[in-house]
Amino acid sequence: MRTLLSLIIGIFLLGCQPQDQDQKAENPQFFYVGTYTDESSEGIYRYQLNANGTLGRLGLAARSPNPSFLALTPDNRFLLTVNEIDQKGTGTVASYRVREDTLLFLSKSSSGGAHPCHIAVNRDGFVLTSNYSGGNVGLLRLDREGKLSDLLDLDQHQGNGSTRRQQGPHAHMARFADRRQSVIAADLGTNELWFYRLDTSRGQLIPAHPPTLKMARGAGPRHMTFHPNGQWIYVINELNSTVTPVHKTANGDYRKGASVSTLPQDFQGENLCADIHISSDGRYLYASNRGHNSIAVFRVSPEDGSLRIAGHHNIRGNWPRNFALSPDEKYLLVANQKSDNIVAFSRDSTSGQLDYTGQIEAPAPVCILFE
Questions:
Q1: CA angle 295, 344, 63 (to 5 degrees)
Q2: What tens digit of pLDDT does each residue of 188-200 get?
Q3: CA–CA–CA angle 312, 314, 315 (5° rounding)
Q4: CB-based burial of residue 203 (10 Å sphere; 0-12 exposed, 13-18 middle, 19+ buried)?
Q5: Which residues of 107-126 are buried (b: 16+ CB within 10 A; e: fewer)?
Q6: Is-above-0.90 flag for pTM?
Q7: Strands 182-187 and 192-199: what pairing?
Q8: Chain center to CA of 296
């Protein structure tokens, strides 16, 4: 009897122990989905990624026209979105206050050009917009209440590439580098990276010297990701399906490394690359293929930053425009624009490889942003 009583007391005490770690592991991770609203979508949606890799839809967070790219302020208080539209030669950008289960609209401003397709914000509240059809990069600022200023500056790109899709500038991404003061933009149309210094006192983008870096003929730079060491940039080229390492030299200039293909050697079809991300340990880089419909995995050399292909993973859908690593990097989620689904994969941090865990319907998803 005493033995049974001791067992009962032991079980009771065990159940009273703090369960914070277990509960934390079981808590879902939440994310927003930007979409194209031409058909069934109404704007920005909120979803959850469960601990077992399955997905759940929580509902519409905000009505918004073509919110094709999203960004959160570093303090997670405000969400920004582009509206990829053309209204008399310009698109718009909007800001929202983040609430527990919804987004509260705060402000809207001109992006400075037609069809803005990317937005970025730094800790000082400066906002970059990349206008694809406008071929320019806009600069705005967010105040402490989350409201956007009018345009502070607009840099118009000039030039052409060598292909049909490069007959004029098409700014596709602009990002802050070196924490706050430097800006790098990828222009698919001019086939160049563009470099700036951000003048915070005057609210201007000042061209660097040299101001641009030419990519390989017909490459079409689209997006980029930065290695954790801050010295290596990886550019995904939409038109020739390659990734190009770009290294920062000791004097602050940039030089290109050897480009690598995102496709298997035996692939013969048409392909357009879209998105690129690197793990926080800098060991693995991921790139999306639209056409081959895959995520390419690369090993990153710790010595010189060069890339070596490590595999391809079918994304179980069509047209992976965007993907994201979860905050804990245990999962990778893919937004398949043309098949209206989001697919989840678990990620092995040792090998970099992916395993399918689940999927869910989503209307024309084109951006995934974790809270």
A1: 105
A2: 999 999 999 999 9
A3: 120
A4: middle
A5: bebbbbbbbbbbbbbbeebb
A6: yes
A7: antiparallel
A8: 16
